[in-house]
Fold:
Amino acid sequence: MTISANTLDFGYPWWLSYGHLIVLVPAVALLLLGYARKWSKWPMLLLGLLVLWSGAAFVLTRFVFNFNGRAGSLPTQSFLRSGAGRVLDMGAGTGRSSIMVLESRPQATLVALDLFSKSFEQHFGHSESPQGRLLANLKAAGVEQRATIQTGDMRELPFEPATFDAVVSAYAIDHLNREGSKQALAEAARVVKPGGDFLLILIAKEPWAQFTFGPLLMHGGPRGPAWWTTRVQEAGFQVLEEGTRPATLYLLARRL
Ligand SMILES: C[S@@+](CC[C@H](N)C(=O)[O-])C[C@H]1O[C@@H](n2cnc3c(N)ncnc32)[C@H](O)[C@@H]1O
Structure:
């Protein structure tokens, strides 16, 4: 695979953006066929509903959730309000969350940490150089000079205590089991300075995501906002803000 430094390529699988077309295209074809052949009301109604759902779900995944596009602005402007400092991104993957922080906070520097192993491959496919893919995206976004790539496990971070002004983690900690999630939260609390911010971003079963993915949305198991809020508090943070974005739950917390 050639890695281009010119264009962002986050590498999330195609079906996350285009999977609903597998339902939409045949449903439209059948609806047209049924119309031409004057099928009865009920199959036509069913097909019409299928077209409406898969069409709306396609628009949502492709243009609103937009997993392979820039994450855009931070979910809360209160994160790292000073605008400057050293930030850790736990589970940086191919850079979507790191780029979101570095573009939103142009005075900040960031360490993009990932294990770059099985979980990386599950999300982004096999790659000879996963770190190279992350670097290429940081370069394409023009933020590589403020970023450092670090290979490591977020359950056992390779950093001294209180070395970061803020920590972010997006769609990563919810991939760990309960014990792993607690370890990662404890590690976030250990490496952030007292008074430092922690922004936790998770895939959420909010109404738009449920409409789009229905029962297929298994992410994080049955752990809901209350579970995460309690675990973040137990780790030593004060939760300042909680909110949702399409398909997303976020918590902004401060190290006590
Ligand atoms: C869905 S990706 C999210 C990537 C990125 N934060 C984003 O917003 O696109 C989850 C990432 O977490 C990483 N990850 C999973 N377990 C990890 C661990 N124990 N330590 C470090 N990274 C881990 C995976 O390698 C993967 O890149």
